[in-house]
Structures are given as C-alpha cells and as structure tokens.
Design goal:
Layout lengths: L11 H12 L12 H17 L12 E5 L2 H20 L5 E5 L5 H9 L2 E5 L9 H7 L4 E7 L11 H11 L2 E5 L7 H6 L16 E5 L11 E5 L2 H4 L4 E3 L7 E3 L8 H37 L5 E3 L7 E6 L4 H10 L5 E3 L4 E5 L8 H17 L9 H9 L3 H13 L3
Parallel strand pairs: 2-3, 2-4, 4-5, 5-6
Antiparallel strand pairs: 1-7, 6-7, 8-9, 10-11, 11-13, 12-13
Helix pairs in contact: 1-9, 2-9, 3-4, 10-11, 10-12
Length: 410
C-alpha cells in the first residue's frame, strides 16, 4: 500500500508534518494579502522542487515557474489545460488532440474529457516504454501535446524523455513529463550513482512537469507541484474574471480556496528533510527495490515486467493466476496494485517496506506455491472480477460496470 510516511503520529517526521498543518489549518492562499506567509511557503516549495528538476541548468532557460496543486491529477489537468490554450494562441489550434502511451496515467483521460481534447493512446514498445515512432505517426496539425513518464505508474519504467523532447521541439508542440512518482527520487538516485537517463527541464522540448510532494517528498496528502518552462506557458493556467459584480478575480488552480495547512506541511517536510534526508531515504528504498528484484527472479513461476528504473516492481506469471496470488497476499495484509496488459501486480517500495521486505518475499513465495497447488479463486477474493474484466471485449461494458460501482459507494 502506498503510505509515504516517516515516523509515527507521536514522533518523528509524521509528527512534525501534523504540527505544521495544524498551525496553518485556518489559512487560505486565495487571499494572498491576508496569508502572506503561506504564499511565501508555496513559492519556496515550487522553487525548491524546480531546482531538483533542472531549473538551474542553462538548458532550462532560467524561467521555470509553477504552482502547488491538490495532487498529481490536478497537476496533470492544469498542464493539459495550459498546453491547450498555449497552442491555441501560438498555432490557432481549435480542435486539439494529444498523444499518450498506454502506460500514461488515467488523469490524461480525465483531462481529455474535461477539456474536450481528442486523446490518442498508443501501445508501448517491447521494453514497456513510450514508443516514439508510434507517437510520431499520430502527430498532425491539431496535436497540442505528447506525454512521457519518469517513471510510469504501472511498471516503474522511465520513458525516453530525450527522444520525446526532440520530437516535441521539431514539431513545435508541448511535452509534459509526469514525474509525480519520480520527482523526489530520480534526482537523488542520480547523485547516488544510479544510471538515470535525462528526464527534466535540462531536456530541450520539455514544456511542463508534474511532481507530487506528497509521495516521496513525504509531505501531507494533497500536495503536488506543476512546473512550466516559462511564464508564457504558465499564464494559460490562470483564470482571470473582470466582469463579476463580486469584484476582480484571478485564480491559478482548479480550486479557488485551498488549504494553506497542506502547503505549510509540504514546506516543513522539505525543510526538515533537506538534501541529506532525501538522499538517505532514496539510498534505502533503491537498495530494497534492487534486492526485491534479485529475490523475485529466484521464483521461477514469476517474471518481472520490463526493467524497472526506480522503486516500482511489477510482476506477472505464466504459470499461476497472478490475481489469485494477489488475493492471498491481501489476506496476509499486503495491498498490491492489480495491473492489466499484461495481467500483473506491482509493489511500490516506500520507507515502510525497508524493514519488512524479507517478510514480503517469504509471503509471496508461499502465496505462489499455494495457488500452484490449489488453482482456483478463494472465497471472497477479487481474482474472478479482475480476470473477467480483462476478458470482456466490450470495453464500454467494463466502463459502465466501473461507473455503476462508483455510483453505489456513496
């Protein structure tokens, strides 16, 4: 399960964040003149995050800017909206289209629906990376945006950002890089000597980046950052209203009122951990990720999907039903993500896993052997649902099932 926390509610980092949030729980950065300290916290979180992602490199142009948002989805939504409006002003595109690899986050589907953009979702290559040639084939006069991830959520694999950057620059379109998972790991992993390919504003062609502080940045949930190469692009994010009887109004993000306590919590997280803290954390989780992959390759019934670049390890099986393995792991208290194309599971290594990784490997080995000896779904498990969903050719029916499930939950 994705719990990006350190310490406990009564001590350590977790306790510090809770205190910072509660101190500013009443604040609202919509009113900049009233809550000036929160506005400064946001500006500093954005600047510190940008400095991790190439803003100080000459190739960035020296104008990287951005805002805090409620999470990776809002950061992606804003980047897509800004790209759409920027390309309309720059090229006169009124029937916008964007191209994403099938590994890209579902937030792009949400953005396409919200902002009336035609979405092309293209297959990944054999290494489960964005297929640059396939993306190129879909570019036309209405293309506003292409997308890469570092890494992608399903398999933890970094897309070829440099090649995508060259493509975007050549065609004069936008390139958004989803660093929601990798933004607070990859810069430090590179400093630790891991072979991390270029992924940020040092790459020519990258126009925007999303990065979650509430993941490996260890900030409170509900804190992300969206960054732009320059102010000309970022200005398209804002909504300014001049004819309202309530006065002049301008807002940078989807939300008007925002919780200042979360911004303060993010600032406190980054200031308390600092570079040394993030380097220490990254060293621990990268080593555990490497250990997990080595131990997993000892299990002949399993295969690792692609070559993970970071702390997400996806695995499937050609011998047992991996979703039945998942049900047994769930009964043991391990909450893994179920994936499709191919059917697989993934674990996202956090600090919570560092001390228990041997337990995970042992439980996984036992779960695989149990399913191998006793194939068939366990009572109350979700394996039949996952399996059926993957086999239904009518994806509209699957979509309807998902909507009805969501509609019944509240």
């Amino acid at each position: 399960m994705l719990c990006y926390i350190g310490g406990s509610e009564s001590e350590g980092h977790f306790s510090l964040i809770n205190e910072a949030c509660s101190m500013f729980a009443h604040t609202n950065p919509l009113h900049l003149d009233v809550f000036q300290s929160v506005a400064r916290f946001e500006a500093e979180v954005v600047a510190m995050t940008a400095s991790l992602l190439g803003s100080k490199e000459k190739a960035s142009g020296g104008e990287v800017c951005g805002n805090m948002t409620s999470g990776g989805t809002e950061s992606i939504l804003l980047a897509v909206k800004s790209s759409r409006d920027y390309m309309k002003a720059k090229k006169g595109i009124t029937r916008p289209e964007m191209i994403i690899p099938e590994s890209a986050h579902s937030a792009y589907d949400k953005a396409a629906q919200y902002f009336n953009i035609k979405l092309w979702r293209v297959p990944v290559n054999k290494e489960f990376q964005a297929d640059v040639k396939a993306i190129k084939r879909h570019i036309n006069r209405n293309t506003i945006l292409i997308v890469g991830s570092a890494p992608g959520f399903p398999h933890g694999i970094i897309d070829p950002i440099e090649e995508l950057g060259e493509l975007a620059f050549r065609y004069g379109i936008c390139l958004h890089v989803d660093l929601c998972l990798g933004g607070f790991v990859l810069p430090f992993a590179r400093k630790l000597g891991y072979p991390i390919p270029p992924f940020d504003f040092s790459v020519k062609g990258v126009t925007s980046i999303s990065v979650d502080v509430h993941k490996y940045g260890l900030a409170p949930k509900g804190t992300s950052v969206v960054l732009y190469r320059n102010h000309d692009i970022r200005k398209n994010q804002f909504v300014a209203v001049t004819e309202w009887s309530g006065g002049l109004y301008v807002s940078p993000t989807i939300a008007g009122s925002r919780p200042g306590g979360l911004i303060a919590g993010a600032w406190a997280a980054m200031m308390s951990l600092g570079e040394e803290g993030y380097l220490k954390n990254t060293k621990a989780i990268m080593e555990v990720s490497k250990k997990l992959q080595e131990r997993m390759m000892e299990l002949p019934e399993l295969f690792i999907v692609g070559k993970p670049d970071m702390t997400i390890v996806a695995f499937g099986s050609n011998v047992v039903d991996i979703f039945e393995v998942n049900d047994i792991m769930s009964s043991k208290g391990w909450h893994l993500n179920a994936l499709q194309r191919p059917n697989s599971l993934h674990i996202c290594i956090t600090l919570q896993h560092v001390s228990v990784i041997n337990d995970f490997i042992q439980d996984l080995r036992e779960a695989v052997q149990t399913v191998k000896a006793n194939p068939g779904p366990i009572k109350g498990g979700l394996a039949p649902i996952y399996g059926a969903a993957g086999k239904i050719p009518d994806r509209g029916m699957v979509q309807e099932l998902l909507v009805n499930y969501m509609d019944s939950t509240c």
